[in-house]
């Protein structure tokens, strides 16, 4: 990436690329610490202008035939595919993702989500007729009914830094498919990729105002995008603490919410588990986004009979992983997003030591002069009341806690403020499903960390509100209207 010649990105408001009132700030490559480009800092007025543009565009867009909206999404996917290489290069530079992750899981999944929502699905359902007796409401009648999904209106999409393609696309595509218009506020660490997505949508024929992108490091940028009276719904991915503040604002104005918040996924590993499968799955916490993902199985609950072997094999697995330049072919673990976040992750490891956890792998900063690297770290002999077992670290750190009986394992798994995705490894399929149904989590993986991309995604407790992915996202970005008539 060129540094001195890096482009100064403009905001995308009402179909125009506009200069930011607040100037520009540098976007830093987490691997090299060099400047990738210059992101725009929007003012509160510019955010409100974006929301107003989305409000003005909502009427015509919501009345556009679903097939025409789908065609825009399909063209967007095709354009992303045509520009795949430079888009992936930028995503890697902004996030520090390995090449495979930037190409396959970031840009590749982003394009796939636009293709997915280019598939038109029914938005109306017939309700069985009801026979009403004569009464104060009128004569006897057979009442027909229809349930109709209607767009919510203007949706503010506040996206996470760990995946600047898949996460925004997972919000924008279903929202547009349902006839909503959007104002996207990307994470300040890596907003440039989201502007590339806006370029693709513009080139695909999205009308002016249907998609708007406003960025900035100042808190007031996000606040304005949430509190604007033109906004009907907020879709947010990020920390529980920020989600709570957004929810307070939405509650005052009765705005719809879709919240995908923090996680502290429990991985229950029973004595009869396939340890190779468990180690490979849990090990993704070290390698996938360098642990910066809310679905990671960061809290391992190991039954006593397998505890020692599991810790040994996880430590060996962590030690084999190559940490370094994400552009290098053999790299498995790249950097975390920033120096500040590296310090935060390292402070949690030190806290774990002080609380009595044993560092059996990692724990030391990798010996690189540049880049925000954290070694894959395994903490053993943890208890469920330690901070490293209760708080989301968002880095390549795994805590292992022993348990004896099934009931104890379930109780420990549920003893958390979070409930996004848990995991069960067991050779007894009946037990695995029995345990899964008792876990207070929005999703449970049985002998896998893989996902079905049509399955509902979202959390219990402080891990969020609502569900998206697949057809569930179409429900999330719509209101259901009942139309009733006499038969």
From TrEMBL:
Alphabetically sorted, this entry's keywords are: Oxidoreductase
Please give the Gene Ontology molecular function terms for this protein.
oxidoreductase activity, acting on the aldehyde or oxo group of donors, NAD or NADP as acceptor
Q: Does the keyword Phosphoprotein apply?
A: no
Q: Give the Pfam families listed for this entry.
A: Aldedh
Question: Has keyword Transcription?
Answer: no
- What residues does the Aldehyde dehydrogenase domain cover? 17-483
Q: Which Gene3D superfamilies match?
A: Aldehyde Dehydrogenase, Chain A, domain 1, Aldehyde Dehydrogenase, Chain A, domain 2
Q: Which domain of life is it from?
A: Bacteria
Please name the InterPro entries in this protein's record. Ald_DH/histidinol_DH, Ald_DH_C, Ald_DH_N, Aldehyde_DH_dom
PANTHER family named in the record: ALDEHYDE DEHYDROGENASE-RELATED (PTHR11699)
Protein family (similarity comment): Belongs to the aldehyde dehydrogenase family.
Name recorded for this polypeptide: Aldehyde dehydrogenase family protein
């Amino acid at each position: 990436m060129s540094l001195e010649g890096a482009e100064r990105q403009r905001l995308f408001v009402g179909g125009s690329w506009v200069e930011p009132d607040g100037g520009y700030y540098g976007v830093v490559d987490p691997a090299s610490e060099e400047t990738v480009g210059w992101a725009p800092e929007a003012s509160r007025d510019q955010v409100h202008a974006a929301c107003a543009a989305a409000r003005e565009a909502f009427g015509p867009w919501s009345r556009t035939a679903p097939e025409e909206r789908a065609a825009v999404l399909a063209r967007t996917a095709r354009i992303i595919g045509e520009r795949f290489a430079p888009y992936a290069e930028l995503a890697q530079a902004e996030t520090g993702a390995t090449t495979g992750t930037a190409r396959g899981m970031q840009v590749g999944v982003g394009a796939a989500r636009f293709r997915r929502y280019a598939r038109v699905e029914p938005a109306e359902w017939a309700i069985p007729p009801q026979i009403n007796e004569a009464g104060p409401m009128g004569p006897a009648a057979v009442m027909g009914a229809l349930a109709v999904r209607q767009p919510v209106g203007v949706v503010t999409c506040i996206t996470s830094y760990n995946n600047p393609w898949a996460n925004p696309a997972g919000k924008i595509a279903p929202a547009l498919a349902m006839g909503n218009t959007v104002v996207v506020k990307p994470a300040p660490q890596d907003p440039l990729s989201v502007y590339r997505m806006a370029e693709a949508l513009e080139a695909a024929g999205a009308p002016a105002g249907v998609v708007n992108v406003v960025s900035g490091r100042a808190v007031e940028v996000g606040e304005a995008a949430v509190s604007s009276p033109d906004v009907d719904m907020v879709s947010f991915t990020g920390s529980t603490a920020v989600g709570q503040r957004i929810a307070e604002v939405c509650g005052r104005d009765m705005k719809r919410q879709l919240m995908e918040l923090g996680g502290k996924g429990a991985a229950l590993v029973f004595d009869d588990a396939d340890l190779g499968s468990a180690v490979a799955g849990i090990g993704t916490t070290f390698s996938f986004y360098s642990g910066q993902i809310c679905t990671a199985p960061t809290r391992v609950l190991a039954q006593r009979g397998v505890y020692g072997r599991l810790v040994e094999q996880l430590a060996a697995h962590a030690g084999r992983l190559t940490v370094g330049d994400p552009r290098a072919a053999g790299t498995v673990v790249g950097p975390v997003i920033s120096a500040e976040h590296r310090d935060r992750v390292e402070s949690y490891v030190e806290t774990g030591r002080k609380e009595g956890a044993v560092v059996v792998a990692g724990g030391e900063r990798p010996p690189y002069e540049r880049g925000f690297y954290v070694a894959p770290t395994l903490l053993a002999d943890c208890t469920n009341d330690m901070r490293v077992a209760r708080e989301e670290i968002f880095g390549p750190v795994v805590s292992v806690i022993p348990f004896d009986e099934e009931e104890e394992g379930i109780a420990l798994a549920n003893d958390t403020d979070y409930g996004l995705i848990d995991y069960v490894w067991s050779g007894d399929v009946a037990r695995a499903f029995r345990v899964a149904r008792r876990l207070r989590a929005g999703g449970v993986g049985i002998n896998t960390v893989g996902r079905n991309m049509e399955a509902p995604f979202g959390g219990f407790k402080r891990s969020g509100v609502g569900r998206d992915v697949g057809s569930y996202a179409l429900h999330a970005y719509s209101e259901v209207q009942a139309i009733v008539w006499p038969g």
